[in-house]
Write a structure and sequence with these properties.
The chain contains 7 helices and 9 strands. It is of the alpha/beta class and 235 residues long.
């Protein structure tokens, strides 16, 4: 099978548990390190699927790789080559299909609940879970792209994930986290997790409490998402 292309936009936001899951299921993958100047491939048919990770930049920044990546994503979806976006990756997918990405009135950092409002999507992507806890670290949010289905929401930001058709998923949330990655983000951005914290923007102590247990539960959610997404991989 062709490899899954994993687009990385920051050295601090690698594929983490997603890569571990692919390795465990003997699914080949190829890192496209945009943060190191890697070119955006022109043809999605080189890959079984396309996945995108997070990053600190905005999709509204004048970055030279955003337009060619948007074209690649539209071409991939048009050819039914599965696309998966985590956080910035979800925002990139949303923008590629005509949705606005804007600054959120309520940024989210930490372990935050989301709900799956659509019963069919709940069963398809999230193992039937109606509500669960994910990891969040974002200041911007996407609108729902035209024709997409809202599949996750919460009280802080309505758009937490969307599906385009049955193969393509854009996540605002992070399900790829590992304990080491959570600890690294907190260490690298101390000002963002300082203070007593709030439900939407938690403190370092809040985030690190029972970290391994929380990540284990998160991996159960991630495994269901990745298993469903991988069913559509081009062969």
């Amino acid at each position: 099978m062709k490899p899954v292309a994993i687009f990385r936009f920051s050295p601090s936001e690698g594929p983490a548990w997603f890569a571990d899951w692919l390795d465990a299921h003997a699914i080949a993958w190829q890192l496209v390190a945009v943060d190191e100047g890697a070119a955006i491939p022109a043809d999605p048919r080189e890959f079984a699927g396309i996945a995108m990770m997070g990053g600190p930049m905005s999709v509204t920044d004048p970055l030279p790789w955003i337009d060619p990546l948007s074209r690649l994503l539209r071409d991939a979806v048009g050819r039914d080559i599965p696309v998966l976006g985590h956080c910035l990756g979800g925002q990139l997918l949303a923008q590629a299909f005509g949705a606005k990405v804007t600054r959120s009135a309520t940024p989210e950092i930490g372990w935050i609940d989301v709900a799956a409002p659509d019963p069919a999507a709940r069963d398809r992507w999230f193992g039937g879970r109606e509500r669960f806890t994910v990891f969040q670290w974002h200041y911007e949010v996407f609108e729902l792209p035209p024709g997409a289905t809202r599949v996750l929401a919460n009280a802080f930001n309505r758009e937490q994930a969307f599906a385009i058709g049955e193969r393509h998923l854009g996540l605002q949330v992070h399900v790829e986290m590992t304990p080491a990655l959570v600890e690294a983000w907190c260490a690298n951005s101390p000002a963002e997790v300082a203070g007593p914290g709030t439900p939407a923007r938690q403190s370092r102590a809040d985030i690190l409490r029972d970290l391994r247990g929380r990540v284990e539960v998160l991996h159960e959610v991630a495994d269901d998402i990745y298993s469903r997404w991988a069913e559509g991989l081009a062969r």
